[in-house]
Amino acid sequence: VTQKQFHLFYQVFRHGDHTPQEFFPTDKHKEIARQQGYGQLTKLGIQQQYELGQYMRRRYSHFLSVVYKQNYHPKCFFLFFLQIYVQSTDCDHTLMSAQANLAGLYPPTRDQIWNPRILWQPIPVHTMPLSQDNLLYLPFSHCPKYKELLRETFATRDFQRQFKHYKQFLKFLATHTGYPLKKLTSERIWKLSDTLQYEDINNYTLPVWATHGVRTKLIKLSELLLQAEFGFHKQIQKSRLQGGILLKTILKHILDARKPSYHQKMVMYSTHAATIAALQMALNVFNGKLPPHSACHFFELYQEKNGQVSASYTANMQYTIEMYYRNNSLREPHPLTLPGCKFRCPLERFTHLVSPILIPYWTREC
């Protein structure tokens, strides 16, 4: 009888709803920044992440301990390990998202309750300066080869065929937002879309020009530009320089998890829409849609055993990977299948299929 034993859970999620990171020049609501700050997680964003943490607690209640704690190594009392590792980009809204998520995942119990009116406990979240983040803060722009690939992409017939429908729209945006046309870069388009979405959700009066149709078209343009960043043209080469870097780290953890000495159960990354898009483009499972707030791509590693359970090191083919994408809190996550494999993909096959986008020396290839 084949039995599945859960070994590791790996999640990469987008931050929750946050205040705008910048306001367009003609925006009438710049007082938001004075009142709440730039790029700060909102109450809605906190709730989104808290619910994601609660969902993960329900899903993995059989696997993660109820109590957040350090565990001593079973063979060496002087060594200890943590069940989980959490890393975030160095942005306020991603750091706050990780903390809100952990509040839902690890509410304090019994001896951990330090104040009966505050069911929360501090849990470490690791980060590094954005200028040094070569893992989570995508796209990595400090790569000459990637910049060359982007220039090629924007010149391709396929991209230009779709982009031509937005040229008049960009002039429209420049006229009404106050941005010079040349300043409407991909990043600024994404931020403009985020700003209008925030103001709409939080019941601020939108400009007359920012109709539902305009906001919908802005989202479509954002999605086109996001796909251009990581796909359209020479997608494998781009993935080697972008999402493949993150996938390489994830795969290393997954491969290490087969060893008896590995005791970590969960790795959590608090990131951005572009991070998820880059990862999914590298895996060739991207749906073309902008990942919503608190969207989560996660991996589950299983060891399949026939008959008896063995503690010894076993071959790759006894391990399988399942992938899921949670982009809607009202339904179960979507199962994702790596092209060329079945949903429950043997680890050896998974590793082989993604090997073309894994590079040993990123700086050399850039």
TrEMBL record:
Enzyme Commission numbers on file: 3.1.3.2
Keywords: Disulfide bond, Glycoprotein, Hydrolase, Signal
One Pfam family cited in the UniProt record for this chain: His_Phos_2
Reaction(s) catalysed (UniProt annotation): a phosphate monoester + H2O = an alcohol + phosphate
One function term, GO molecular function aspect: acid phosphatase activity
Xref: InterPro entries: His_Pase_clade-2 (IPR000560), His_PPase_superfam (IPR029033), Histidine_acid_phosphatase (IPR050645)
GO cellular component terms attached to this protein's record: plasma membrane
Family: Belongs to the histidine acid phosphatase family.
The name this protein goes by in its record: acid phosphatase
Organism, as annotated: Motacilla alba (White wagtail)
